[in-house]
């Protein structure tokens, strides 16, 4: 399963009889390890800054932390209603076949924990190299905690190589005891998939100023529709005398219990050309939605499941308020309700941290890519395929490609024919590349939003969900190309 082009590392070889001996001794040892772990202290939540619900019912909650010095990820899973065991792991495409798994199970008498893998038919096998290290477990009022560690790279061909980008996490709940690992039939268990960015950037969080203020933009206790997919829009407005401020941080505000349903959220600012925007609180695709809401498209904040609080660097903040800035804001929330829950009330949204002490630079958000439509797809059988987004001359007339200011969005020379000012005004600019980036700020940039094999391009909806600042290294190019 380490098929991601990593550099091979030297690994020990095992003879057949050593493998057989290891298998039978491990099963006996797992029970002892787990019993001892149960006597330990509860895992401390402060060690796990990243959190995401694994399943839509909220039965499983994953928390984790990343140690770059150790090149390892520390996992903590909260099982709210532990029955007879759990499967958790990773695979290239989110399938349970050819997956790297860690399994907790019971036969009704003892409990066992071990590193396993599944073959192409979905049959489970104990891994000869145990790379999931059990660190502790604990019963608590809210459920059962399981804590374990896994290195990024294990040199085990049956293990998944943890790298940057989206990781397909899989889970399954055992609802009856099993007498052995091989007796687990993954096709009959409650199971699912969650996509996350496991490797978060190791960036120092800037200190907030003493005069920072907060503003919560949330839905007014709506009832989440009993349908699988809902986009909800809510219009609010800033005070009349709201002067220019800088947003320096934002974080999610999610109604307790609705964490599995709130998929992503955005705050848009409306176009300043309109003196007023009608108040609205309803479905974004409703025929009753005021037409002017279509002009509320300037992104102020964006969050998605698995993302944490977003901090701007101390040199910059995102400007809002003041002359030339609309007072009207649109909150948009995507609810993902595959189990069709009814009657769930929600007051989720985003909390903005802002200051009137303006920072040296106004940050900007660059949106690159294509309109999200069914035609944004890769034809079958292609080994390489370029999807191109075009800007009209009306758009590119606002951009100076050759610019002495290093903080310019495009401080690079463009490939192709250029006019003397750096851009053919009547040509269309194509932003072409394997990796799309977002949230440009001075000398900083987010991790790639779109990366990986062509087959994964249709998953960009999930991959854009992890805003996180990252320093732009020498040699990284994000810019336009010109079509002749």
Instruction: Estimate what percentage of residues fall within beta strands.
Output: 25-35%
Strand order of the largest sheet: 7-6-5-4-10-11
| Rg measurement, Å | 25 Å
| Helix content bin | under 10%
CATH class of the largest domain: Mainly Beta
- What is the CATH H-level superfamily of the largest domain? Cellobiose dehydrogenase, cytochrome domain
Mean pLDDT: 77
The CATH architecture category of the largest domain equals Sandwich
General shape: elongated
Tally the helices: what do you get?
Answer: 3
The total count of strands amounts to 29
Classify the secondary structure makeup into a structural class.
mainly beta
- Poorly predicted runs of 5 or more residues: 3-8, 10-46, 401-469
Q: Return the CATH topology of the largest domain.
A: Immunoglobulin-like
The largest sheet, given as strand count, sense and whether it forms a barrel, is: 6 strands, antiparallel
End-to-end distance: 43 Å
Number of domains: 3
